[in-house]
Amino acid sequence: MRTLGRVHHDWGCARAWNEAGLAVMFCGPPGTGKTMAAEALAAALALPMFRIDLSQVVSKYIGETEKNLRRVFDAAEAADCLLFFDEADALFGRRTEVKDAHDRFANIEISYLLERMERFKGLAVLATNRRRDLDDAFARRLRYIVEFPVPGAAERARLWRQVFPAAVDVGGIDFGFLAERFEIAGGTIRSAAFNACLQAAAREDEARVDMADVLRAVRHELEKGGREIGPEQFGAYARLLEEAP
């Protein structure tokens, strides 16, 4: 971004290629840090960040989606900000074969968005959970596609150790077991840690979270995400889940 103005205007790339900004796609499962990375990028560039949930922008009424997108881009250009589209796959899904009026108008909406992105004088960051569902024509117009994978065991262990505040006693938690046994993203780890703290605070006055608190919280997060979870997945600690909280 720091060299974008020079390349586009001084070197003439914007005029030659009919584009003015920079579009980036962040891809990865929920909780892998896409939104946090966009916030960090905006802070590094000293820009405010406009966050738009595309699932709320898309309308079933013909022409309304384009109107909503026009308002978003006009406001973003006037504010000189980083434009962050969350849930991008709500609109940027793979183009369908035109079989009826709905398909035709859906493709018109996508084409309008691509046109505005090319003319947007700034940085547009788009986040999706489903990289494989993205339309090929759309993907070609992106300057960068950044993958956010689920962290590996070593990264998960570090996240588990860092997620609890220093004031909380976590001496009884087996972080190595949690990291090796449960392949979950950083956002899920944070939610489980917070849930475990709530359980512990309801049980006793001192700031102490034990292994049973964390295991119950992890089970809750996995079930919330629709994943089947049985006692065998908790190994030697399964007995803790049978005890009353």
From TrEMBL:
Residues 20-152 form the AAA+ ATPase domain. The keyword Nucleotide-binding applies. Keywords: ATP-binding, Nucleotide-binding. Signal peptide: none annotated. GO terms for molecular function: ATP binding; ATP hydrolysis activity. InterPro entries: 26S_Proteasome_ATPase, AAA+_ATPase, ATPase_AAA_core, P-loop_NTPase. It holds the Pfam family AAA. Gene3D superfamilies: P-loop containing nucleotide triphosphate hydrolases (3.40.50.300). Belongs to the AAA ATPase family. This is ATP-binding protein.
